[in-house]
Amino acid sequence: MKGWIILAIIGGILYYLYTETDTLDEPIAEVEGIFQQAENKLDSMTGTQIQRVDHTLDILKSDIADRLSATENQALQAISQSKQTLSEFKQDFCGSHAQKHSVFSKDNQTYICDQL
Fold first, then answer.
1. Is residue 87 a contact partner of residue 51, using CB atoms and an 8 Å limit?
2. DSSP code of 82?
3. Exposed e or buried b for every residue in 31-40, given b needs 16+ CB within 10 A?
4. Any residues with CB less than 8 A from the CB of 86 and at least 6 apart, and which?
5. 1: helix, coil or strand?
6. Helix, strand or coil for residue 74?
7. To 10 degrees, the CA torsion angle through 9, 11, 13, 18?
8. What's the rounded Cα separation, in Å, for the pair 58 and 54?
9. What is the DSSP string of 50-64?
């Protein structure tokens, strides 16, 4: 019985130090850092990270290159500069109620939208 009382007192002291003071913050942060390092090392040893490579734009460029005029080809290069410009093009010019692009012909615009 005496052992349980001592264990309860130690538990109460640790709870007080953890919740009411800053005494245990630094040791807790160190232990959490060690656990995080171990977890990162374990993940790097056992886990693989999958990186998706999207080749649809490259395939589109090679498929449609002979159909495009020089100005259309330059416009396609400008659109494919970044994911943001590509998504803006899809949002503005692809879909059932989309407006016609000023450079692309209607057929080429439809083909590009279908491939994206």
1. no
2. S
3. eeeeeeeeee
4. 57, 79, 80, 116
5. coil
6. helix
7. -170
8. 8
9. ------HHHHHHHHH
The answer for residues whose C-beta is within 8 angstroms of residue 80's C-beta and 6 or more apart is 57, 61, 86
List the pLDDT tens digit at each of the 116 positions of the chain: 888 999 999 999 988 888 888 877 888 889 999 988 888 887 777 766 656 666 677 777 777 777 787 888 888 888 877 778 888 888 887 877 777 777 777 787 787 777 77
Looking at residue 2, its pLDDT comes to: 86
- Nearest C-alpha neighbor of 113 from the set 85, 94, 98: 94
CB 57, CB 79: distance < 8 Å: no
**Within its chain, how far is the Cα of 102 from the centroid?**
33
Q: Which residue has the tokens 């171990």?
A: 38
Q: What is the pTM of this model?
A: 0.47
Q: Which tokens in the block code for residue 30? A: 């160190």
